[in-house]
Design a protein that fits this description.
Structural class: alpha/beta
Helix content: 40-55%
CATH topology of the largest domain: Nucleotidyltransferase, domain 5
Bound molecules: zinc ion
Number of strands: 8
Order of helices and strands: HEEEHHHHHHHEEEHEHHEHHHH
CATH architecture of the largest domain: 2-Layer Sandwich
Length: about 350
Amino acid sequence: MAQKRKISDEKRQFKDSWELRFLVKEQSGRVLCLICNEMISVMKEYNVQRHYSTLHVTGYDKYTGEARRALLNDLKSKLRVRQEKIFQLVKPSSSTTIASYDVSLLMAKSKKAFSDGDLIKRCAIAMGKAMGFNNAAREFEKIPLSHQTVARRVEELSNFVQEKVMNQIQQCVYFSLALDESTDIRDVSQLLVFVRSIDSQFNVSEEFLGLLPLFTTTKGSDIYEALNSLVSKYGGFQKCSYIVTDGAKSMTGAKRGVIAYLRDAGVDGPMFHCIIHQELLSGRCIRLSDVMQHVMKIINFIRGGNKALRHRLFVDFLRDLDTEFSDVSLHSTVRWLSAGKCLQQSSVCVMRF
Ligand SMILES: [Zn+2]
């Protein structure tokens, strides 16, 4: 196996001549394109040149000599102005609260522990100091991000969303529900409920209504009980016009399925199943087997069964080639939605070979 290249090799150092040739600038050990403000991930001449020649060569190659130098200086000064603007914090007290809510929302969306707020704050302070924005770093210190604060903020945001959904359902004329039950990695069954409502002005809104864990059995009656208690909080089934479910027997069963219990409870209107995952259904019909079969064969050769050594060697090989993806994902027919990702990874790897 060829010796691995090190990041610190001289090939990966920023060359001053690139500034004029490709209109880029070195920033915190990376290359920043001054035209589109994008960071070029690998500091190699090939990557910088590729970025410039694919995106900007038509618009900027006409500038040569003195004109190009002037353009470079102009772009640099524009960048400075932009960076100063970002860090001008106008109203410290209110903007720290807004920042605290914004960070809490991002943390909740990316499923981070509430205690990470403190780390994020320290990172922001370190970044501010490293880039020479000492005033901004001092302001970052004032942002309240303790785990209690983040927990409180997330709760407030969640209550706000819940109130919004509550208002929408109370003011709507009709609503429909989509139910899907699946099992999570801890083997707890989770019932997902989505609601779509329409008001008298024909405004349609679609919201996530709730995630109901079913800890014991997942019979039709269990799902019905959970669903009923959730919908009761929003005013019951009176305005419900339409229900779609997944295709499980506990949902669709004529006697003991959720649909049967709903009918017994007097819920009217059409009830369909299996139209939630339309991609999956159409995928089964289209049968993209020609390409997929070969890709699956290759992936199974690398990853399937007890092939840990082969898989390790393959990952090492990809590392040597410096490819975009460091591995291929295992694909199976059950996870049909992962097919796109599998194909993309494989095509990128094949192109590199
Ligand atoms: Zn660019």
